[in-house]
Amino acid sequence: MGRPSHLALLADAHRRAARPEEGLRAIEEALATVHETGERSYEAELYRLKGELLLAKCARRSAERESEARQYLRHAIDLARRQGARSLALRAVLALARLERSGRRAAQARAELREVYASFTEGFECADLAAARSLLEARSARNQ
């Protein structure tokens, strides 16, 4: 019980320590546990982390690596929305908005981020909501 969420914390620590390979191993173990036990409450976060760890794995981003990461982030967003996990959806959409830097995909990701951000009525001092606000404000200021 709780193993996937603990492995997600471990994977995120590896990501922050610039050790994406170790993080990806923890994610694979967590996802295997999810599929084995059916404990899916943290599944969206696992897929978000997998996308971010894939991006961190390479010194140079390739279109193929970004596409793979984008698929995991989209999957995380879909799972979080189906589960009604707004905070996990916010994290995944925020990661997607950071990935998408220009063009149509960037505008779509910002629109999704605005939508998820607007669904919150409190807790705006928490790190994820503050990061979302900063990203939205920065992009809005650039577009003026």
Q: Say how many strands there are.
A: 0
Helix content: over 70%
User: C-alpha Rg, in Å?
Assistant: 15 Å
Could you say how many structural domains there are in total?
1
* Poorly predicted runs: none
Largest sheet: none
Beta content: under 5%
Instruction: Assign the CATH superfamily.
Output: Tetratricopeptide repeat domain
- Secondary-structure-based class equals mainly alpha
Termini distance?
Answer: 49 Å
What's the average pLDDT? 92
What name does the CATH topology carry? Serine Threonine Protein Phosphatase 5, Tetratricopeptide repeat
CATH class: Mainly Alpha
Output the number of helix runs.
7
Q: What is the CATH-assigned architecture?
A: Alpha Horseshoe
Return the string of H and E elements: HHHHHHH
What is the 3D shape?
globular
Describe this structure in words.
The structure is a single chain. The protein is 80% helix and 0% strand. The chain has helices at residues 3-16, 20-37, 43-57, 63-83, 86-99, 103-118, 127-143. The protein has a single domain, classed as Tetratricopeptide repeat domain (Serine Threonine Protein Phosphatase 5, Tetratricopeptide repeat, Alpha Horseshoe). It has 144 residues and is mostly helical. The chain is built from 7 helices and no strands. The model has no long low-confidence stretch (mean pLDDT 92). Helix 1 (3-16) packs antiparallel against helix 2 (20-37). The relative contact order is 0.10.
